[in-house]
UniProtKB/TrEMBL annotation:
The keyword Oxidoreductase applies. Keywords: Oxidoreductase. Pfam families: ADH_N, ADH_zinc_N_2. It comes from the Bacteria. Gene3D superfamilies: Medium-chain alcohol dehydrogenases, catalytic domain, NAD(P)-binding Rossmann-like Domain. CDD domains: MDR_like_2 (cd05289). It comes from Brachybacterium rhamnosum. Its EC number is 1.-.-.-. This is NADP-dependent oxidoreductase. It is an enzyme of class 1 (oxidoreductase). Residues 10-303 form the Enoyl reductase (ER) domain.
Length: 307
C-alpha cells in the first residue's frame, strides 16, 4: 500500500510517499480501504517532536488519527461490522506508528462508527477527533438546556462543532472569533465576539451575570475565562494545562464508538454539519500540513485517498 511516512521528527519536509506492506487484522479489529483522512494540529505537533514526552512514536511513522473508508476485512470476534460497511473513526492508539495517511488502515472496533449517509468520505473523516473533542468537553462540563456557554475559538475545527452541539442542547452560546468570521460563527449558532484586548468586557456586555461554562480550544485565555465565569461556573481547556490550577479541567479526547455514533445521529438529523475547507490528494500531505500550520482555513482540511 501507499502511505505517507516520516522517519525523524521535523517539519512537513520530512514527509515521504512510501510503499509499505498491508497491515494485519487482529482479533477485535477491521481493516479498511481508506477513502479519506483529515489533518489535525496534533498530527504535525507529534511529527515536530512537540509531544515526545507524552506519545511514543515508532519510526517510520504514518501520521493521522482521523479516517473514513470501507471495511475490506474483519478480524476474529467482530460481529458489529462486515465487508463493505462504510465507516469512520478517531483511530488513536497508545503509540504513534500506523496512522490514517495510507491506503489501508487496521482499527479496533471500539473506535469505529458507521459513516453518515449524508456525508462524503472527506467530510466523514473530518468529524471524529474534532467532533468528539467538542462533544466530550461539553458533556463533561455539564452543558445543557438553559446554560450560557462561552467558547474560545468558535470558528476553529473543534469550536465550530462545539457551537453547533451546544446550541442543539438548548444552550445560549457566545463564541470568540476574528471579526471577519463573525457571520460564520453566527450561522453556526453562536453570538460572536472579537477575541483580544477587551474580550471580558465584551462578553460581560452580553452576559452581565457571567457565563455558566467556558471552554477553551485555543489557549492563552485563562484570565479572560476567569473574568467572565459566573459564581459556581465550570471551565476547561484542551490547550492550557494551567486551568487545573484555577479549578478547571484539562481535556484529552478519547476514542469512543458510542460518542461517535451519537455525532453521526446529529448529522443524520441535520443539526450538525461538517465543513471541509480544503481537500488534498495523499501525495500532497505536506501541503495539507502547511495549510493547517498557517491556520487560516474556516473548516477542516482533508486528504482524499483511494476510491
Amino acid at each position: 500500500m501507499k502511505a505517507i511516512t516520516y522517519s525523524s521528527y521535523g517539519d512537513p519536509d520530512v514527509l515521504t510517499l512510501s510503499e509499505l506492506p498491508d497491515p494485519k487484522v487482529g482479533p477485535g479489529e477491521v481493516r479498511i480501504a481508506v477513502r479519506a483522512a483529515s489533518v489535525n494540529p496534533v498530527d504535525w505537533k507529534i511529527m515536530g517532536g512537540h509531544l515526545d514526552q507524552l506519545m511514543t512514536v515508532t519510526f517510520p511513522a504514518i501520521p493521522g488519527w482521523d479516517v473514513a473508508g470501507v471495511v475490506e476485512e474483519v478480524g476474529l470476534d467482530v460481529p458489529e461490522f462486515q465487508v463493505g460497511d462504510e465507516v469512520m473513526a478517531y483511530g488513536r492508539r497508545d503509540w504513534v506508528q500506523a496512522g490514517s495517511f495510507a491506503e489501508k488502515m487496521t482499527l479496533p472496533v471500539r473506535t469505529l462508527a458507521r459513516k453518515p449517509a449524508g456525508l462524503d468520505f472527506e467530510q466523514a473523516a473530518s468529524l471524529p477527533l474534532a467532533g468528539l473533542t467538542a462533544y466530550q468537553t461539553l458533556t463533561r462540563l455539564g452543558v445543557s438546556e438553559g446554560s450560557t456557554v462561552l467558547i474560545h475559538g468558535a470558528n476553529g475545527g473543534v469550536g465550530s462543532f462545539a457551537v453547533q452541539i451546544a446550541a442543539g442542547l438548548g444552550a445560549r452560546v457566545i463564541g470568540t472569533a476574528s471579526e471577519r468570521n463573525h457571520d460564520r460563527v453566527r450561522d453556526l449558532g453562536a453570538e460572536p465576539v472579537t477575541y483580544g484586548d477587551g474580550l471580558a468586557e465584551r462578553v460581560r456586555a452580553l452576559a452581565p451575570e457571567g457565563v455558566d461554562v467556558v471552554i477553551d480550544y485555543v489557549g492563552g485565555v485563562l484570565q479572560e475565562t476567569l473574568a467572565v465565569l459566573a459564581e459556581g461556573g465550570r471551565h476547561g481547556s484542551v490547550a492550557d494545562p494551567a486551568v487545573t490550577d484555577e479549578g478547571g479541567e484539562y481535556f484529552w479526547v478519547r476514542p469512543d464508538a458510542a460518542d461517535l455514533e451519537h455525532l453521526a445521529s446529529l448529522v443524520d438529523a441535520g443539526t450538525l454539519r461538517v465543513d471541509v475547507a480544503r481537500r488534498f490528494p495523499l501525495e500532497q500531505a505536506a501541503d495539507a500540513f502547511r495549510a493547517s500550520i498557517e491556520g487560516h482555513t474556516a473548516g477542516k482540511i482533508a486528504l482524499s485517498i483511494g476510491g
